[in-house]
Amino acid sequence: MSAPAHDGTKNTPSIDVSTQEHTTQSPSKLLSRISDLERQLREQTALLALLTSSASSAQPTTSTPATLPSRRRSRSHSPRRVRPFDPSLYSTRHIALKFAYLGASYGGFEHANGNITPQPTIEEVLWKALRKARLISPAVEDGADSGFDVLWGVEERRRRYVKGGGPANGDGKVRLDLNWEGCQYSKCGRTDRGVSAFGQVIGIRVRSNRPVEKTATGEEEPVPKNGDSGMSNGTLEDDDMPAIDTDDLATDSCKKPFDPIRDELPYISLLNSILPPSIRILAWCPSPPPNFDARFSCRERRYKYFFTNPAFCPTPGALGMLRGDGKGAAEVREGWLDVEKMKLAAKKLEGLHDFRNLCKIDASKQMSSCVRRVTFADVVEWDGGARNVVEHHGLNQYGGSTAKTIVNGLTRMTAKETGPKVYTFCVHGTAFLWHQVRCMAAVLFLIGQGLEEPSIIDELLDIDKNPGRPMYEMADDAPLVLWDCIFPDKDPQPGEEMADSLDWLYAGDEATIPSLTTSSTKSDGKFGTGAVVDELWTQWRDAKMQEVLAGSLLDLAISQGDGSSFERGATRDGHSQSAGLRTQKVFDGSSRARIQGRYVSVMNKPKMDSLEVLNAKWLKSRNARRAQEEADARGRDSEETNAEGE
Fold this sequence. Notes:
Elements lengths: L26 H29 L35 E11 L20 H11 L21 H7 L25 E2 L8 E13 L58 H6 L6 E7 L14 E10 L29 H9 L3 E4 L16 E11 L6 H4 L12 E4 L2 E4 L7 E9 L6 H13 L6 H7 L6 E3 L9 E7 L18 E2 L6 H4 L15 H28 L24 E3 L7 E3 L10 E4 H35 L1
Parallel strand pairs: 3-12
Antiparallel strand pairs: 1-3, 1-4, 2-3, 4-13, 5-10, 5-12, 6-7, 7-10, 8-9, 11-16, 14-15
Helix pairs in contact: 5-7
């Protein structure tokens, strides 16, 4: 092959393609010839790129080498060129994603177009990440936000987005509209503001690495290379060149078989590299059922509501052992919960019941029934909290199979429990009403404090006797977690727990590795820098250090002084306990107990209207608004007609 001339003009590289006697060459010589041709093509393409770049440069290059190494890249400093992304060139597939999020930084899961929340919703962040990864390509209308970056600040969001469904007012604001059209999108649970989820599930149609099918004319559509996101910097490398598989030489087609898992895009790692650390994709299902819908295919949702015991700082001395009304002794010190009574009350929630008095009614939904089935409810001591870090045989300090390791004849404990115990209210059900879990938790806390008896659950479930919900406060949102969503393929036997049938592939599973990387030095998506466990460990350790510091300071403050505070018979407001009634602390799941006056029992509180009355009132007001709008419209039409007549 002769070197190209360098006379300052643009030359077209040539390749020495000798074809003589190609029909008589042996297969080994033919393969060698093909490899040589590919090498020449790479070198000449790289040379052409360099010559093109040099010709457009302000400082022309004085000399150019005749040949270039095959791995040499262009040194052009021109701006990165982005080639338009054409989703029609890619195939798609319907998958399910399981993911987790810590809800403190979000305004709930669901986004409503036209409504701007102070904090971004989970759906908003997820939608932008899916679009940024080119996994979905929905149309973005004029005047709507087409960016990929999430705005987190309250004032920043207020300045950027226009509220309502109308167009922008010329002040630079845009609508925050999420368009899922064509994405076959479905969601399982719609958690409220501040609520977390560890097993949220969505179904969605995303871009795939599967080669596109042949067109009607029989020609093959262009197929993007593995992992191509539609972005290019204008340079070509070895990996950009078409490869020829020697196994295909004996066939009529060079098309390779596509493995739907090994050859697929690494969805977990791809999304986790874009999403904030508080949202982690945990698994994906490559083959959900053909009629899969994350909402309607889910047969059981499982929630956990976490709390400590004591629930809030205990009232010291003799005063803490008095009842809230100041009459008689309390069974437990104020601040501590009677867990056994709570367990008894939780079991009363199991079964098929009308939960209208244990939820929040949204009359706009016009629900005719609040009957739901709770398959399991209990209050259990929680032994979690990153225990697997020290107990798992693949992570613990001594490489043993349990958390207890025998060293020199002594039992070494790798973990030690300290401080107040943590409990969780666990509840499973086929479906839940709005704020149902938080209302149930609030009543259980009143029972645990001794302010109500377990029989209050029976009263609230008796809708014939109590058709209207008493106006009690529901529990705080922060400790609530949507723990898991179950998609069974058959009904469980009596006494059996419902089992999930979706074939989930979790981060780090062996089947997911080929699509992620072929190098053992890179992250497997679960462990390693930036992987799921590494990111969650970082968040846990930051929170743990805050716990250690605050807990140590708490212990120090309690131990200081002469101890008289524990014996003094003063109330919280400084008056003597002989003053009679005192303010009542009520635990609602938050970090600080709510202070109120004399406690009024749930059944003696004012009651809301019944479900039927609330529905009728909303419908009447809606019909009245519609009638008024129609009357106003008729009036405007009449005025316009009269004006035309005049």
